[in-house]
């Protein structure tokens, strides 16, 4: 059984989204906006539930799809999310306003590499979810892990980058630099002296990272 068959099977098990969420998925497809895939998202939601997370910091809002799914899919969860693209930020504002979840989602406009102080005001967080510019993953990790509580976890999406990380030289020319950076990030994570990481081969790859315990 190949990967595509397994993916199709898993997708058949999850109910199709309706109304606003379905509209958001259609908008993402039509406007080529990258949003988290269904299988990865369901894994993330379950990780949040198991972790009993109540506060998530998301780097990379896009149109607000994952923030809304997290807020609605995990009881008692609040999400602070930041987006630097003005058009996408405004779309997220509109979608979240229509969702009825405004009290659980705080939208911040700006570049995460420049707006740490705004996000620091709402710390500490239980979870850091990194799903923005792949070439900046290491910088996002380094900058925002100090805002987590002692048992916080870090979830990074797209760490397998369509499988290209296995051989960056086989990736399209326009993606080579980015693929190399993601590959370097994965290797850096797995060898980090203060953190332990598991990479889950679901969707486009999810890295789940926790601080190492002192024994």
Automatic annotation (TrEMBL):
Entry-linked CDD domains: AdoMet_MTases
Entry binding sites for Mg(2+): 131, 157-158
Binding site residues for S-adenosyl-L-methionine: 36, 66, 83, 111-112, 131
UniProt entry keywords in alphabetical sequence: Magnesium, Metal-binding, Methyltransferase, S-adenosyl-L-methionine, Transferase, tRNA processing
Reactions it catalyzes: 5-hydroxyuridine(34) in tRNA + S-adenosyl-L-methionine = 5-methoxyuridine(34) in tRNA + S-adenosyl-L-homocysteine + H(+)
Organism superkingdom: Bacteria
GO biological process annotation, one example: methylation
Similarity comment: family membership: Belongs to the class I-like SAM-binding methyltransferase superfamily. Cation-dependent O-methyltransferase family.
Protein name: tRNA 5-hydroxyuridine methyltransferase
Species for this entry: Thalassorhabdus alkalitolerans
């Amino acid at each position: 059984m190949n990967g595509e068959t397994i993916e199709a099977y898993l997708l058949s098990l999850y109910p199709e989204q309706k109304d606003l969420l379905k509209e958001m998925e259609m908008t993402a497809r039509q406007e080529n906006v990258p949003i988290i895939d269904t299988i990865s998202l369901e894994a993330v939601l379950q990780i949040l539930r198991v972790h009993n997370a109540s506060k998530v910091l998301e780097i990379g809002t896009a149109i607000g799809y994952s923030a809304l799914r997290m807020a609605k899919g995990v009881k008692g969860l609040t999400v602070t999310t930041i987006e630097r693209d003005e058009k996408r930020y405004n779309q997220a504002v509109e979608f979240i306003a229509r969702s009825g979840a405004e009290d659980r989602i705080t939208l911040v406009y700006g570049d995460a590499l420049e707006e740490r102080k705004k996000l620091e005001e709402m710390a500490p967080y239980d979870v850091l979810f990194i799903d923005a510019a792949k070439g900046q993953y290491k910088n996002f990790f380094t900058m925002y892990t100090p805002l987590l509580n002692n048992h916080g976890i870090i979830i990074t999406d797209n760490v397998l980058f369509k499988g290209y990380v296995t051989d960056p030289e086989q990736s399209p020319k326009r993606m080579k630099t980015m693929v190399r950076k993601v590959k370097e990030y994965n290797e850096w994570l797995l060898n980090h002296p203060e953190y332990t990481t598991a990479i889950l081969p679901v969707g486009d790859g999810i890295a789940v990272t926790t601080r190492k315990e002192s024994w």
